[in-house]
Amino acid sequence: MHSINDKAVLANGVEIPWLGLGVYKADNEGEVEQAVKTALENGYRSIDTASFYGNEEGVGRAVKESGIPREEIFLTTKVWNDDQGYDNTMKAFEISRRKLGVDVIDLYLIHWPVEGLYKETWRALEDLYKRGFVRAIGVCNFLPHHFEELKNTAEVTPMLNQVEFHPWLTQPELMAYCQENNIQLEAWSPLTRGRKLDDPVLNVIADKYNKTPAQVILRWNVQEKVVTIPKSVTPVRIKENADIFDFELTDEDVRQLYDLNQELRFGPHPDDF
Question: What are the site positions for Lowers pKa of active site Tyr (predicted)?
Answer without folding.
Answer: 78
